[in-house]
Amino acid sequence: xxxxxxxxxxxxxxxxxxxxxxxxxxxxxxxxxxxxxxxxxxxxxxxxxxxxxxxxxxxxxxxxxxxxxxxxxxxxxxxxxxxxxxxxxxxxxxxxxxxxxxxxxxxxxxxxxxxxxxxxxxxxxxxxxxxxxxxxxxxxxxxxxxxxxxxxxxxxxxxxxxxxxxxxxxxxxxxxxxxxxxxxxxxxxxxxxxxxxxxxxxxxxxxxxxxxxxxxxxxxxx
Length: 222
Ligand SMILES: O=C(O)c1ccccc1N[C@@H]1O[C@H](COP(=O)(O)O)[C@@H](O)[C@H]1O
Hints:
The strands form 2 sheets. The chain has an 8-stranded parallel β-barrel with strand order 1-2-3-4-5-6-7-8, surrounded by 6 helices. Strands 9-10 form a two-stranded antiparallel sheet. The protein is globular. It has 7 helices and 10 strands. The chain has a single domain, classed as TIM Barrel. Strand 9 (196-198) and strand 10 (201-202) form a beta hairpin. Helix 1 packs parallel to helix 7, helix 2 runs parallel beside helix 3 and helix 6 (177-184) runs parallel beside helix 7. The protein is of the alpha/beta class. The chain is 31% helix and 20% strand. The structure holds the ligand O=C(O)c1ccccc1N[C@@H]1O[C@H](COP(=O)(O)O)[C@@H](O)[C@H]1O. Ligand LGQLAAA5 binds next to strand 2, strand 6 and strand 8. Residues 6-212 form the N-(5'phosphoribosyl) anthranilate isomerase (PRAI) domain.
């Protein structure tokens, strides 16, 4: 059976970290972007990451961060993966990551079609990324709770390795993620708004429902 990897992002509370891990998340995200309503400091991310059991990966999310800011995050959470969600070039990402695994967010315009966004070109440009978080283009760079047109991109193209590098993101919810996994067949999914009670506050029932909805699509073998 396929097993779509699941990242729950934008955590700010110990209880939410512990629930996400217990419910079956593969990764949790901490937003180190001060302008986000879900922002945490590096020190706080370090405290939260200590609540994770083995094999659940902490991911530090940055938007156009300086090297010293990324360094501070990695000092606080040394085993973290990195997610670059801004305008970083491939060279920026490689330099900032210092050999750590990193993901790069792609931002697909909203509305019908992909609005000129070329996923294959993006994938080639960011060939050194371990994964591409394919998100909607929203103000504030991300976390907007809006889904783009999943039918507009060539997910099964061989240049994407049958979507093996794709993490579907943007406006996912317990109600739509089963359909998203069926259509895209991504390696993973990433969610923030769709499992929240309020910005930065996760709803445990929504987190559990989201993970169950992903597993439903997995069980269908699609
Ligand atoms: O969560 C944020 O506040 C955020 C801010 C800046 C960049 C990215 C952010 N979050 C990421 O956005 C996507 C989609 O989120 P949503 O599910 O639509 O709310 C996801 O990768 C978040 O990690």
